[in-house]
Amino acid sequence: MQPDDFEFLARLLKERSGLVLTKDKGYLVENRLMPVVRQKRLKTLAELLTALKNGEAAVAEHVVEAMMFKDTGFFRDWKPFEHFRHTVLPNLLATRKAKKTLRILCAGVSTGQEAYSLAMILDQAREAWAGWTAEIIGIDLSAPALTYAATGLYSQFEVQRGLPIRMLLKHFQKEDDSWRLKDAIRGMAELKVWNLMDDLFPLGRFDVVLCRNVLPYFDMQTKFAVLQKLGRSMSDDGVLYVGLHEPLSGVSTSFQAVNARLGIYVSGRAEAAKIATLAAPR
Amino acid sequence: MKKCLIVDDSRIIRRVASKILFELGFDPDEAEDGEKAIEAVRIRMPDVAIVDWDMPVMDGLMFVTALRKLPGGDKPIVIFCTADNEVHHIERALDAGADEYIMKPFDSEIVRSKLTILGALD
Fold first, then answer.
1. For residue B98, what is the nearest residue in chain A, using CA coordinates?
2. Minimum Cα–Cα distance from A168: chain B residue
3. B62–chain A nearest CA distance, Å
Protein backbone atom coordinates (compact mmCIF):
# COMPACT_ATOMS: atom_id res chain seq x y z
CA MET A 1 0.00 0.00 0.00
CA GLN A 2 1.26 3.47 -0.91
CA PRO A 3 2.10 5.80 2.02
CA ASP A 4 -0.57 8.26 0.81
CA ASP A 5 -3.21 5.52 0.85
CA PHE A 6 -2.17 4.40 4.32
CA GLU A 7 -2.46 7.95 5.63
CA PHE A 8 -5.85 8.38 3.97
CA LEU A 9 -7.12 5.18 5.61
CA ALA A 10 -5.64 6.13 8.99
CA ARG A 11 -7.37 9.53 8.83
CA LEU A 12 -10.73 7.97 7.93
CA LEU A 13 -10.52 5.52 10.83
CA LYS A 14 -9.53 8.22 13.31
CA GLU A 15 -12.38 10.51 12.24
CA ARG A 16 -15.06 7.84 12.29
CA SER A 17 -14.09 5.67 15.24
CA GLY A 18 -11.16 7.20 17.11
CA LEU A 19 -9.11 4.16 16.12
CA VAL A 20 -5.46 4.93 15.53
CA LEU A 21 -3.79 3.01 12.74
CA THR A 22 -0.05 3.14 13.26
CA LYS A 23 2.46 1.80 10.74
CA ASP A 24 3.28 -1.18 12.99
CA LYS A 25 -0.35 -2.29 12.61
CA GLY A 26 -0.13 -2.06 8.83
CA TYR A 27 -0.25 -5.86 8.57
CA LEU A 28 -3.83 -5.68 9.86
CA VAL A 29 -5.00 -3.70 6.86
CA GLU A 30 -4.84 -6.48 4.29
CA ASN A 31 -6.06 -9.16 6.74
CA ARG A 32 -9.10 -7.18 7.71
CA LEU A 33 -9.92 -5.49 4.41
CA MET A 34 -9.62 -8.32 1.89
CA PRO A 35 -12.97 -9.79 3.04
CA VAL A 36 -14.52 -6.35 2.39
CA VAL A 37 -12.92 -6.27 -1.07
CA ARG A 38 -14.58 -9.62 -1.86
CA GLN A 39 -17.88 -8.62 -0.29
CA LYS A 40 -18.02 -5.51 -2.45
CA ARG A 41 -17.20 -7.64 -5.52
CA LEU A 42 -13.99 -5.71 -6.10
CA LYS A 43 -10.69 -7.25 -7.15
CA THR A 44 -7.98 -5.47 -5.20
CA LEU A 45 -7.35 -3.37 -2.13
CA ALA A 46 -6.50 -0.49 -4.49
CA GLU A 47 -10.03 -0.62 -5.94
CA LEU A 48 -11.46 -0.51 -2.41
CA LEU A 49 -9.36 2.56 -1.61
CA THR A 50 -10.55 4.25 -4.78
CA ALA A 51 -14.16 3.64 -3.74
CA LEU A 52 -13.35 5.08 -0.33
CA LYS A 53 -11.75 8.17 -1.84
CA ASN A 54 -14.80 8.66 -4.04
CA GLY A 55 -16.76 9.02 -0.82
CA GLU A 56 -18.88 5.88 -1.01
CA ALA A 57 -20.45 5.97 2.45
CA ALA A 58 -21.42 2.28 2.59
CA VAL A 59 -17.85 1.26 1.74
CA ALA A 60 -16.44 3.50 4.46
CA GLU A 61 -18.83 2.00 6.98
CA HIS A 62 -17.75 -1.54 6.12
CA VAL A 63 -14.07 -0.64 6.21
CA VAL A 64 -14.35 0.90 9.69
CA GLU A 65 -16.33 -2.09 10.97
CA ALA A 66 -13.78 -4.54 9.59
CA MET A 67 -10.87 -2.67 11.17
CA MET A 68 -12.64 -2.50 14.55
CA PHE A 69 -13.24 -6.27 14.77
CA LYS A 70 -11.51 -7.17 18.02
CA ASP A 71 -9.92 -10.33 19.25
CA THR A 72 -11.82 -11.40 22.36
CA GLY A 73 -12.65 -14.49 24.38
CA PHE A 74 -14.75 -15.92 27.16
CA PHE A 75 -13.44 -14.98 30.63
CA ARG A 76 -10.47 -13.38 28.93
CA ASP A 77 -7.47 -13.32 31.31
CA TRP A 78 -9.66 -15.12 33.89
CA LYS A 79 -8.50 -13.24 37.03
CA PRO A 80 -10.46 -10.01 36.42
CA PHE A 81 -13.61 -12.13 36.05
CA GLU A 82 -12.78 -13.96 39.27
CA HIS A 83 -12.41 -10.55 40.90
CA PHE A 84 -15.85 -9.59 39.63
CA ARG A 85 -17.35 -12.89 40.82
CA HIS A 86 -15.82 -12.95 44.29
CA THR A 87 -15.34 -9.29 45.20
CA VAL A 88 -17.33 -6.83 43.09
CA LEU A 89 -20.58 -8.77 42.76
CA PRO A 90 -20.97 -9.53 46.51
CA ASN A 91 -20.08 -5.91 47.22
CA LEU A 92 -22.72 -4.64 44.80
CA LEU A 93 -25.32 -7.01 46.19
CA ALA A 94 -24.68 -5.52 49.63
CA THR A 95 -24.53 -1.84 48.63
CA ARG A 96 -27.42 -1.87 46.13
CA LYS A 97 -29.82 -3.75 48.43
CA ALA A 98 -32.27 -0.85 48.62
CA LYS A 99 -32.38 -0.11 44.86
CA LYS A 100 -32.15 -3.73 43.75
CA THR A 101 -30.61 -2.80 40.43
CA LEU A 102 -27.35 -3.81 38.88
CA ARG A 103 -26.14 -2.27 35.62
CA ILE A 104 -23.08 -3.39 33.69
CA LEU A 105 -21.65 -1.93 30.48
CA CYS A 106 -19.36 -3.89 28.15
CA ALA A 107 -17.77 -1.26 25.90
CA GLY A 108 -16.27 -2.72 22.72
CA VAL A 109 -18.15 -5.97 23.31
CA SER A 110 -17.35 -7.19 19.78
CA THR A 111 -18.53 -10.79 19.34
CA GLY A 112 -20.04 -10.89 22.81
CA GLN A 113 -17.86 -13.27 24.80
CA GLU A 114 -17.12 -10.91 27.72
CA ALA A 115 -20.76 -9.85 28.14
CA TYR A 116 -21.86 -13.48 28.11
CA SER A 117 -19.11 -14.41 30.59
CA LEU A 118 -20.57 -11.87 33.01
CA ALA A 119 -24.06 -13.24 32.32
CA MET A 120 -22.84 -16.73 33.26
CA ILE A 121 -21.40 -15.39 36.52
CA LEU A 122 -24.65 -13.60 37.33
CA ASP A 123 -26.59 -16.74 36.47
CA GLN A 124 -24.54 -18.72 38.97
CA ALA A 125 -25.48 -16.21 41.68
CA ARG A 126 -29.10 -15.93 40.55
CA GLU A 127 -30.60 -16.67 43.97
CA ALA A 128 -28.66 -13.80 45.53
CA TRP A 129 -30.27 -11.24 43.24
CA ALA A 130 -33.76 -12.74 42.91
CA GLY A 131 -36.20 -9.84 42.60
CA TRP A 132 -33.50 -7.47 41.30
CA THR A 133 -33.16 -5.90 37.87
CA ALA A 134 -29.79 -6.86 36.38
CA GLU A 135 -28.77 -5.42 33.04
CA ILE A 136 -25.75 -6.16 30.92
CA ILE A 137 -25.43 -3.79 27.97
CA GLY A 138 -22.85 -4.53 25.30
CA ILE A 139 -21.91 -1.79 22.86
CA ASP A 140 -19.74 -1.86 19.79
CA LEU A 141 -19.31 0.13 16.63
CA SER A 142 -19.29 -3.01 14.50
CA ALA A 143 -22.78 -4.16 13.54
CA PRO A 144 -21.44 -7.44 12.02
CA ALA A 145 -19.65 -8.28 15.29
CA LEU A 146 -22.87 -7.69 17.23
CA THR A 147 -24.89 -9.76 14.76
CA TYR A 148 -22.40 -12.58 15.33
CA ALA A 149 -22.74 -12.09 19.09
CA ALA A 150 -26.53 -12.15 18.90
CA THR A 151 -26.58 -15.57 17.24
CA GLY A 152 -24.67 -16.99 20.21
CA LEU A 153 -23.08 -19.53 17.87
CA TYR A 154 -19.36 -20.02 18.50
CA SER A 155 -16.73 -22.26 16.95
CA GLN A 156 -15.02 -25.04 18.87
CA PHE A 157 -11.90 -22.87 19.03
CA GLU A 158 -13.80 -19.93 20.47
CA VAL A 159 -15.52 -21.90 23.24
CA GLN A 160 -12.24 -23.45 24.32
CA ARG A 161 -10.49 -20.14 24.86
CA GLY A 162 -11.16 -19.37 28.49
CA LEU A 163 -14.46 -21.14 28.99
CA PRO A 164 -14.36 -23.89 31.67
CA ILE A 165 -15.66 -27.17 30.26
CA ARG A 166 -18.41 -27.48 32.87
CA MET A 167 -19.76 -24.07 31.87
CA LEU A 168 -19.69 -25.13 28.23
CA LEU A 169 -21.81 -28.18 29.08
CA LYS A 170 -24.18 -26.16 31.22
CA HIS A 171 -24.78 -23.15 29.02
CA PHE A 172 -24.24 -24.32 25.41
CA GLN A 173 -25.78 -26.79 23.02
CA LYS A 174 -23.65 -28.57 20.45
CA GLU A 175 -24.60 -27.92 16.81
CA ASP A 176 -22.35 -29.96 14.50
CA ASP A 177 -18.86 -28.68 15.37
CA SER A 178 -20.10 -25.39 16.81
CA TRP A 179 -21.68 -24.55 20.14
CA ARG A 180 -24.75 -22.36 20.65
CA LEU A 181 -25.24 -20.37 23.83
CA LYS A 182 -28.60 -21.12 25.42
CA ASP A 183 -31.28 -18.42 25.37
CA ALA A 184 -31.26 -18.04 29.18
CA ILE A 185 -27.75 -16.52 29.05
CA ARG A 186 -28.03 -14.90 25.62
CA GLY A 187 -31.14 -13.03 26.76
CA MET A 188 -29.30 -11.47 29.70
CA ALA A 189 -27.18 -9.24 27.49
CA GLU A 190 -28.57 -6.39 25.41
CA LEU A 191 -26.39 -5.51 22.44
CA LYS A 192 -26.36 -2.09 20.79
CA VAL A 193 -24.42 -0.49 17.96
CA TRP A 194 -22.78 2.50 19.64
CA ASN A 195 -19.72 4.61 19.00
CA LEU A 196 -17.62 5.17 22.12
CA MET A 197 -16.82 8.61 20.73
CA ASP A 198 -20.51 9.53 21.06
CA ASP A 199 -22.38 10.62 24.15
CA LEU A 200 -22.94 7.74 26.58
CA PHE A 201 -25.59 9.45 28.73
CA PRO A 202 -28.58 7.92 26.89
CA LEU A 203 -27.38 4.53 28.12
CA GLY A 204 -27.80 5.57 31.78
CA ARG A 205 -25.51 5.03 34.76
CA PHE A 206 -23.49 1.88 35.35
CA ASP A 207 -22.16 0.11 38.43
CA VAL A 208 -19.53 -1.79 36.47
CA VAL A 209 -17.88 -1.02 33.13
CA LEU A 210 -15.69 -3.35 31.10
CA CYS A 211 -13.61 -1.62 28.48
CA ARG A 212 -10.98 -4.26 27.93
CA ASN A 213 -8.51 -4.32 25.04
CA VAL A 214 -10.19 -1.30 23.48
CA LEU A 215 -8.10 1.66 24.66
CA PRO A 216 -4.84 0.57 22.95
CA TYR A 217 -6.51 1.30 19.61
CA PHE A 218 -6.89 4.99 20.51
CA ASP A 219 -4.39 7.83 20.72
CA MET A 220 -3.78 9.58 24.04
CA GLN A 221 -6.30 12.35 23.47
CA THR A 222 -9.07 9.92 22.49
CA LYS A 223 -8.24 7.61 25.41
CA PHE A 224 -8.58 10.55 27.79
CA ALA A 225 -11.91 11.59 26.28
CA VAL A 226 -13.34 8.05 26.31
CA LEU A 227 -12.26 7.48 29.91
CA GLN A 228 -13.83 10.77 30.93
CA LYS A 229 -17.10 9.74 29.30
CA LEU A 230 -17.00 6.34 30.96
CA GLY A 231 -16.22 7.95 34.32
CA ARG A 232 -19.22 10.25 34.01
CA SER A 233 -21.56 7.39 33.16
CA MET A 234 -20.58 5.39 36.25
CA SER A 235 -21.91 5.48 39.78
CA ASP A 236 -19.69 7.14 42.41
CA ASP A 237 -18.31 3.77 43.50
CA GLY A 238 -18.43 2.23 40.00
CA VAL A 239 -15.76 -0.28 39.00
CA LEU A 240 -13.91 -0.17 35.67
CA TYR A 241 -12.06 -3.10 34.14
CA VAL A 242 -9.55 -2.36 31.39
CA GLY A 243 -7.10 -4.83 29.79
CA LEU A 244 -4.11 -6.26 31.66
CA HIS A 245 -1.55 -4.11 29.93
CA GLU A 246 -3.43 -0.82 29.85
CA PRO A 247 -2.32 1.21 32.89
CA LEU A 248 -4.35 4.39 33.33
CA SER A 249 -1.76 6.33 35.30
CA GLY A 250 -0.81 9.36 33.26
CA VAL A 251 -3.77 8.73 30.92
CA SER A 252 -6.77 9.65 33.03
CA THR A 253 -7.60 11.29 36.33
CA SER A 254 -11.16 9.95 36.28
CA PHE A 255 -10.21 6.69 38.04
CA GLN A 256 -8.26 5.36 40.99
CA ALA A 257 -6.36 2.08 40.78
CA VAL A 258 -7.61 -0.92 42.72
CA ASN A 259 -5.23 -3.36 41.05
CA ALA A 260 -3.49 -1.82 38.03
CA ARG A 261 -1.80 -5.13 37.12
CA LEU A 262 -5.22 -6.72 36.58
CA GLY A 263 -6.66 -3.54 35.06
CA ILE A 264 -9.12 -2.91 37.91
CA TYR A 265 -10.04 0.70 38.69
CA VAL A 266 -12.72 2.50 40.62
CA SER A 267 -14.34 5.86 39.93
CA GLY A 268 -12.29 8.90 40.95
CA ARG A 269 -15.19 9.88 43.23
CA ALA A 270 -14.99 6.70 45.32
CA GLU A 271 -13.82 6.88 48.95
CA ALA A 272 -10.57 5.29 50.11
CA ALA A 273 -12.45 2.67 52.13
CA LYS A 274 -14.12 1.46 48.93
CA ILE A 275 -10.76 0.93 47.23
CA ALA A 276 -9.56 -1.06 50.25
CA THR A 277 -12.66 -3.27 50.10
CA LEU A 278 -12.25 -3.97 46.40
CA ALA A 279 -8.53 -4.57 46.70
CA ALA A 280 -8.82 -6.97 49.63
CA PRO A 281 -7.79 -10.51 48.74
CA ARG A 282 -10.70 -12.91 48.84
CA MET B 1 9.73 -26.44 37.67
CA LYS B 2 6.27 -28.00 37.54
CA LYS B 3 6.09 -31.45 36.02
CA CYS B 4 3.77 -32.42 33.22
CA LEU B 5 2.97 -35.75 31.56
CA ILE B 6 1.69 -35.91 27.97
CA VAL B 7 -0.10 -39.18 27.24
CA ASP B 8 -0.87 -39.66 23.55
CA ASP B 9 -0.19 -42.40 20.99
CA SER B 10 0.62 -39.79 18.34
CA ARG B 11 4.27 -38.80 18.43
CA ILE B 12 3.46 -35.53 16.68
CA ILE B 13 0.81 -34.56 19.24
CA ARG B 14 3.22 -35.43 22.07
CA ARG B 15 5.87 -33.23 20.47
CA VAL B 16 3.48 -30.31 19.94
CA ALA B 17 1.99 -30.53 23.44
CA SER B 18 5.43 -30.91 25.06
CA LYS B 19 6.65 -27.81 23.28
CA ILE B 20 3.61 -25.78 24.38
CA LEU B 21 3.91 -26.96 27.99
CA PHE B 22 7.66 -26.32 28.04
CA GLU B 23 7.08 -22.77 26.82
CA LEU B 24 4.54 -22.34 29.63
CA GLY B 25 7.23 -23.25 32.16
CA PHE B 26 6.64 -26.99 32.62
CA ASP B 27 9.08 -29.87 32.56
CA PRO B 28 7.30 -32.28 30.19
CA ASP B 29 7.47 -36.07 30.16
CA GLU B 30 5.78 -38.28 27.55
CA ALA B 31 3.98 -41.65 27.44
CA GLU B 32 2.50 -43.35 24.37
CA ASP B 33 -0.36 -45.22 26.09
CA GLY B 34 -2.13 -45.49 29.43
CA GLU B 35 -0.06 -48.40 30.69
CA LYS B 36 3.22 -46.59 30.07
CA ALA B 37 1.68 -43.53 31.68
CA ILE B 38 0.91 -45.51 34.84
CA GLU B 39 4.55 -46.63 34.95
CA ALA B 40 5.62 -43.01 34.51
CA VAL B 41 3.43 -41.61 37.30
CA ARG B 42 4.63 -44.30 39.71
CA ILE B 43 8.15 -42.97 39.20
CA ARG B 44 7.27 -39.28 38.99
CA MET B 45 3.80 -37.97 39.85
CA PRO B 46 3.18 -34.95 37.58
CA ASP B 47 1.48 -31.68 38.49
CA VAL B 48 -0.46 -31.76 35.21
CA ALA B 49 -1.38 -34.63 32.87
CA ILE B 50 -2.63 -34.04 29.32
CA VAL B 51 -4.36 -37.25 28.26
CA ASP B 52 -5.67 -38.55 24.92
CA TRP B 53 -8.70 -40.84 24.90
CA ASP B 54 -8.17 -43.47 22.17
CA MET B 55 -4.87 -45.24 22.70
CA PRO B 56 -3.75 -48.86 22.34
CA VAL B 57 -3.14 -51.10 25.39
CA MET B 58 -4.85 -48.81 27.91
CA ASP B 59 -7.06 -45.88 26.88
CA GLY B 60 -7.18 -42.47 28.53
CA LEU B 61 -10.35 -43.15 30.50
CA MET B 62 -8.87 -46.28 32.09
CA PHE B 63 -5.63 -44.44 32.80
CA VAL B 64 -7.37 -41.56 34.59
CA THR B 65 -9.55 -43.95 36.60
CA ALA B 66 -6.43 -45.91 37.65
CA LEU B 67 -4.41 -42.74 38.33
CA ARG B 68 -7.02 -41.35 40.70
CA LYS B 69 -6.79 -44.55 42.82
CA LEU B 70 -2.99 -44.37 43.20
CA PRO B 71 -1.42 -42.80 46.30
CA GLY B 72 -1.10 -39.09 45.44
CA GLY B 73 -3.08 -39.68 42.24
CA ASP B 74 -5.73 -37.22 43.31
CA LYS B 75 -3.21 -34.36 43.07
CA PRO B 76 -2.43 -33.96 39.35
CA ILE B 77 -4.59 -31.69 37.26
CA VAL B 78 -5.89 -33.90 34.45
CA ILE B 79 -6.87 -32.41 31.11
CA PHE B 80 -8.32 -34.70 28.49
CA CYS B 81 -7.15 -33.78 25.01
CA THR B 82 -9.00 -35.71 22.35
CA ALA B 83 -10.82 -35.49 19.03
CA ASP B 84 -13.98 -36.88 20.70
CA ASN B 85 -16.16 -33.81 21.03
CA GLU B 86 -19.56 -35.29 21.86
CA VAL B 87 -21.23 -34.16 25.08
CA HIS B 88 -21.46 -37.71 26.46
CA HIS B 89 -17.71 -38.19 25.94
CA ILE B 90 -16.96 -35.02 27.87
CA GLU B 91 -19.29 -36.06 30.69
CA ARG B 92 -17.66 -39.49 30.95
CA ALA B 93 -14.19 -37.95 31.13
CA LEU B 94 -15.24 -35.56 33.91
CA ASP B 95 -16.95 -38.39 35.79
CA ALA B 96 -13.74 -40.43 35.58
CA GLY B 97 -11.84 -37.65 37.31
CA ALA B 98 -10.69 -35.25 34.59
CA ASP B 99 -10.57 -31.56 35.56
CA GLU B 100 -10.77 -30.09 32.08
CA TYR B 101 -11.29 -31.15 28.49
CA ILE B 102 -9.68 -29.99 25.25
CA MET B 103 -11.21 -30.88 21.91
CA LYS B 104 -8.63 -31.38 19.16
CA PRO B 105 -7.44 -29.53 17.19
CA PHE B 106 -5.96 -27.25 19.80
CA ASP B 107 -3.39 -24.46 20.00
CA SER B 108 -1.18 -22.96 22.68
CA GLU B 109 -3.79 -20.35 23.58
CA ILE B 110 -6.35 -23.05 24.43
CA VAL B 111 -3.83 -24.94 26.59
CA ARG B 112 -2.78 -21.72 28.31
CA SER B 113 -6.37 -20.70 29.04
CA LYS B 114 -7.28 -24.13 30.46
CA LEU B 115 -4.23 -24.09 32.74
CA THR B 116 -5.07 -20.54 33.82
CA ILE B 117 -8.63 -21.55 34.74
CA LEU B 118 -7.23 -24.38 36.85
CA GLY B 119 -4.72 -22.11 38.59
CA ALA B 120 -1.78 -24.11 37.21
CA LEU B 121 0.07 -21.11 35.78
CA ASP B 122 1.88 -18.59 37.97
1. A165
2. B87
3. 20
ipTM value: 0.95
Q: How many domains, chain A?
A: 2
| Per-residue exposure over A229-261, b if at least 16 CB sit within 10 Å of its own CB, e if not | bbbebbbebbbbbbbbebebeebbebbbbbbee
Task: Flag whether residue B39 sits within 8 Å of chain A, measured between CB atoms.
Answer: no
What does the pLDDT read at residue A282? 58
Instruction: Tell me if A161 and B91 make a contact (CB, 8 A cut-off).
Output: no
Kindly tell me if the per-residue pLDDT of A225 is higher than 90: yes
What is the per-residue pLDDT for A69?
65
Residue A19 has pLDDT above 90, yes or no: no
- The residue-averaged pLDDT of B69-75 equals 96
- CA dihedral (A207, A273, A75, A166) in degrees, to 10, reads -100
B105 → chain A, closest CA residue: A157
Interchain contact, B100 vs A165, CB within 8 Å: yes
Q: How far apart are CA A188 and CA A122, in angstroms?
A: 9
Interface of B with A in 46-85 (CB under 8 A): 85
pLDDT score, position B63: 97
d(C-alpha B98, C-alpha B118), whole Å:
12
pLDDT band at residue A275 under the 50/70/90 scheme: confident
Q: Are residues A49 and A108 in the same domain?
A: no
The predicted pLDDT at position A57 comes to: 83
Which of A12, A43, A68 is the endpoint of a domain? A68
| Chain A residues inside the 8 Å CB shell of B117 | 75, 78, 162, 164
pLDDT digit string (tens) for B2-35?
999 999 999 999 999 999 999 999 999 999 999 9
CA B84 to each of CA A20, A156, B87: distance values in angstroms, whole numbers, following the listed order:
43, 12, 9
A128 with A63, same domain?
Answer: no
User: Domain of B30: which CATH number?
Assistant: 3.40.50.2300
Domain that holds residue A31: 3-68
Assigned domain for A226 exists = yes
Q: Is residue B29 part of a domain?
A: yes
CB pair distance less than 8 Å for A73 and B113:
yes
Per-residue pLDDT, B48: 98
